[in-house]
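Tokenised fold entry reproduced for absentees:

. . .
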Amino acid sequence: MPFDIVATAAAPKAIGPYSQAVSVPAGRLIFCSGQIPIDPQSGELTGAGDIRQETHRVMKNLDAVLRAAGSSLHGVVKTTIYLVDLGNFSAVNEVYAGYFPGRPPARATVEVAALPRGAQVEIDAIALVD
């Protein structure tokens, strides 16, 4: 999947596992809706408030949606992370980084008042078709 990481000293360095920007050639893009930590088998929220477990489930759900669309986490060029508590930023970063070990996508992280079903984290993505 060809895309270039954009990095410049003229803007602040990334403070986590994300890139300042990602440049992609024209092609087919996938816009994934936000995923929360719902187990696809049971339909129940997983993790019981454990932010690491919730983040793993979110990433697995996101990967499943991307694969169904002809891509994968390797094709992700941009994500947005929504957190109910920015105090969980470091823990989410640790888990998230494991899913993007080489060239992390561009990313924004925002704190929100609440998420559906009492989730603590939601992540959406834009990806290229593999």
In short: The mean pLDDT is 88. The chain has one domain: 4-128.
